[in-house]
Design goal:
Strand order of the largest sheet: 3-4-7-6-5
Distance between the termini: 19 Å
Keywords: Hydrolase, Membrane, Metal-binding, Metalloprotease, Protease, Transmembrane, Transmembrane helix, Zinc
Number of helices: 9
GO cellular component, one term: membrane
Enzyme class: hydrolase
EC number: 3.4.24.-
Subcellular location: Cell membrane; Membrane
Length: 430
């Protein structure tokens, strides 16, 4: 159980870190200030700051985020009547807003706040205490709130998300899913370098001791041409035929590796039971493994092909999932939340590092595709707003966008709660 938990944390951490790193890198390339990069949700358990970004690890392993500066995300700690100190530059612009006395700044002015705007116009109006005059200060391009000796930069208007072009916004949003696809490509490529790629031809690559294939006299490199008279062209054909025929004697027409002669071998598949995603699955086997090929540069091509094929497969399944909703056939059993993923990750970890790596690559593709769905609060939903802005040359009304985003967040949270509860019932109480 400990192995499974550690494997889940490692897989979760890798997927979320890579996804959010994509957002962070492209947001900063676009000149968008990112006050926080978080892995996990809830209370902070570890943090450090670098280049105006606070990097945090949070307690609950249910996601992560990059907080990009925007006028709606800027929290103004200044209220009318507050007494603070300000540090000014030579242009009489505020460079530091000192919220307490735990600092070492000198030559500061003490003021009593009248009004302030750090979202749009970037100013503070106040009564200066040493001469009781009313002043209006503009906030410098590089300015900070200072509290408990910590500096938090005030995001200037030109470093906020809404101040960027649609193309820059699109890059910052699309980069997260893109990095998930790139991670899957890297992991698949590493797997192919380590293990090679299974050949889809019906050629025996390995034999399991004590199972029907070995006992019948089948040897490595033998080619299976037909089973019970049904032609076999690929490895997939062979596995499907074995399952279709059932636990009955099979006549295999085999082209022998050592002589090229065609012989007929008879064997009866054995029924084995495997645990998959928390369920007991019965499968007929004869005890052979596929042949593998290796290469120096080929694994890179195979990794790309596997990523595309996995993306196509998962996208197709997602489309079928949405169709099932409209057809009234949808069930939460079709989905897995964090609990379900943790259980399956535990099973994959027990099967070995290579299996776990392939599973992680598959999850990475899945995360990339799911985040591109046009659902508010997901990357895909936010990309729709950017596309609207690019087409109509104006952003969506802020109030409308915020209301849609809030609805999207509530919808995603509700689905997560329902899926998690369904996972708990299926895996622990069924």
């Amino acid at each position: 159980m400990l192995l499974g938990f550690l494997a889940f944390l490692a897989v979760f951490g890798l997927l979320v870190t890579v996804h959010e790193l994509g957002h962070l890198i492209f947001a900063k390339r676009a000149g968008i200030m990112c006050p926080e990069f978080a892995i996990g949700m809830g209370p902070k358990i570890f943090s450090f700051k670098h280049n105006d970004t606070l990097y945090t690890i949070r307690l609950l392993p249910v996601g992560g985020y990059v907080r990009m500066a925007s006028q709606d995300m800027e929290i103004n700690p200044l209220n009318a009547g507050m007494r603070i100190q300000v540090k000014l530059n030579e242009n009489e612009e505020i460079t530091h807003v000192l919220l307490d006395d735990k600092h070492n700044f000198t030559q500061v002015e003490e003021v009593e706040i009248d009004s302030s705007d750090i979202q749009r116009e970037m100013y503070i109006t106040a009564h200066r205490l040493h001469d009781n005059s009313f002043v209006k200060y503009h906030i410098a391009e590089e300015a900070y709130f200072v509290e408990n000796a910590n500096l938090e930069r005030i995001a200037p208007a030109d470093m906020r998300f809404e101040g960027k072009s649609p193309w820059q916004k699109f890059q910052a949003l699309f980069a997260g899913p893109l990095f998930n696809f790139l991670l899957a490509f890297v992991l698949f490529t590493i797997v192919f370098f380590l293990t090679g790629k299974n050949v889809d031809e019906p050629v025996v690559g390995s034999l399991s001791e004590g199972l029907p294939a070995e006992e019948s006299g089948l040897i490595v490199d033998d080619r299976i041409n037909s089973i019970n008279g049904r032609s076999i062209e690929t490895w997939t054909d062979m596995t499907e035929v074995i399952q279709d025929e059932g636990a009955v004697p099979l006549e295999l027409e085999v082209e022998r590796a050592h002589s090229g002669e065609v012989e007929t071998l008879t064997m009866t598949p054995e029924l084995i039971t495997e645990e998959l995603a928390g369920e007991q699955v019965d499968r007929l086997v004869i005890g052979i493994g596929a042949k593998f090929e290796r290469g120096v540069f080929e694994p890179i091509l195979w990794g790309a092909q596997e990523t595309v094929e996995m993306s196509t497969l998962i996208f197709t399944l997602v489309v079928e999932l949405f169709i099932s909703i409209f057809e009234g056939e949808f069930s939460f059993d079709m989905l897995n939340g964090p609990v379900g993923i943790a259980v399956v990750t535990n099973e994959m970890a027990q099967q070995g590092f290579i299996v776990l790596m392939r599973f992680t690559a598959m999850l990475s593709v899945n995360l990339g595709i799911m985040n591109l769905l046009p659902i508010p609060a997901l990357d895909g939903g936010r990309i729709l707003f950017v596309l609207y802005e690019a087409i109509f040359r104006r952003p969506v009304n802020r109030r409308v966008e915020i209301n849609i985003q809030v609805f999207g967040v509530l919808f995603v949270l509700m689905i997560m709660i329902l899926v998690t509860w369904n996972d708990i019932q299926n895996f622990f109480f069924s």
